[in-house]
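User: quick one, sequence for these tokens?
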């Protein structure tokens, strides 16, 4: 809030890229209670809150879908429907939050911005679902966004429910940490590019836009991985990972920021290192990736 007043005092709207409510680690009552002071602070400053739902709070989407199903069922309208874009008003303790899934679209400075959480870019993580996906592909079926959504919902809902069971939370935490260690180890041994860098996810970004017929997108903004970065291929959209303004318990060494520009308007940024406390400021002049407490932006794009 301090940085907003310092760098963009006329800011009117804040876009939250999801996972503010962590339904995977705490019961929903606690998760919502934990997020309230933050939302209240935004509201007090008169900011409109746009909330794009992520994977940790995906249950909000399920609840919305179930509520609509019950409404339709009450009317006797019992045909299965899939709505690719959801937008609704959600109220938490009197605070209105305009909620979007999976995307929020906004024109700024004559350019089309698309905001999404980013969990779709990772595809299907669950082993059994990967098998289902393979089998479908083998039989010549294409995995459509509706299928992907269904599969992810199955996986997320089971994690959501596990948050009610204390032992499951500790067990999942352990597995998560172990898989992180394993990933670091294999990256170091095989000197691989981090799988969550914007560059390595760029193909998935293009596919996301294509599969959902999202039309012209000049700037694709997402989060999810907590790894800030920027990448653009010639003729393609500018892809920005905002990173995360909320720090994990320990992020290790302080950020080493190396912004390198090469060739055709291609900026790769901090691809190898974690950069904590980052967010994005957008106005008619352009886009600035900033780090809390740092005067100069990490990346500035004035092409608008
Ligand atoms: Mn996420």
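Assistant:
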């Amino acid at each position: 809030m301090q940085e907003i007043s310092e760098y963009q005092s006329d800011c009117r709207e804040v876009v939250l890229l999801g996972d503010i409510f962590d339904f995977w680690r705490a019961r929903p009552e606690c998760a919502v209670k934990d997020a309230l002071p933050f939302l209240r602070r935004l509201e007090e400053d008169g900011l409109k809150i746009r909330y794009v739902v992520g994977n940790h709070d995906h249950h909000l989407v399920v609840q919305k879908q179930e509520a609509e199903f019950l409404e339709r069922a009450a009317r006797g309208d019992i045909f299965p429907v899939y709505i690719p874009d959801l937008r609704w008003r959600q109220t938490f303790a009197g605070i209105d939050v305009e909620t979007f899934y999976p995307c929020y679209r906004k024109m700024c400075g004559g350019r089309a911005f698309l905001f999404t959480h980013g969990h779709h870019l990772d595809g299907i993580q669950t082993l059994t679902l990967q098998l289902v996906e393979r089998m479908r592909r083998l039989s010549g079926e294409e995995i459509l966004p509706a299928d992907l959504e269904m599969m992810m919902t199955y996986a997320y809902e089971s994690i959501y429910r596990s948050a009610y069971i204390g032992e499951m939370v500790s067990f999942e935490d352990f597995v998560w940490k172990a898989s992180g260690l394993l990933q670091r180890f294999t990256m170091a041994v095989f000197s691989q590019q981090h799988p969550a860098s914007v560059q390595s996810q760029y193909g998935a970004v293009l596919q996301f836009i294509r599969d959902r017929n999202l039309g012209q997108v000049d700037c694709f903004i997402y989060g999810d991985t907590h790894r800030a970065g920027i990448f653009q291929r010639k003729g393609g959209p500018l892809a920005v990972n905002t990173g995360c303004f909320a720090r994990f318990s320990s992020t290790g060494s302080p950020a080493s920021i190396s912004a390198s520009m090469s060739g055709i308007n291609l900026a790769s940024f901090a691809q190898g290192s974690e950069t904590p406390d980052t967010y994005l400021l957008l106005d008619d002049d352009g886009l600035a990736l900033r780090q809390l407490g740092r005067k100069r932006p990490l990346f500035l794009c004035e092409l608008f």
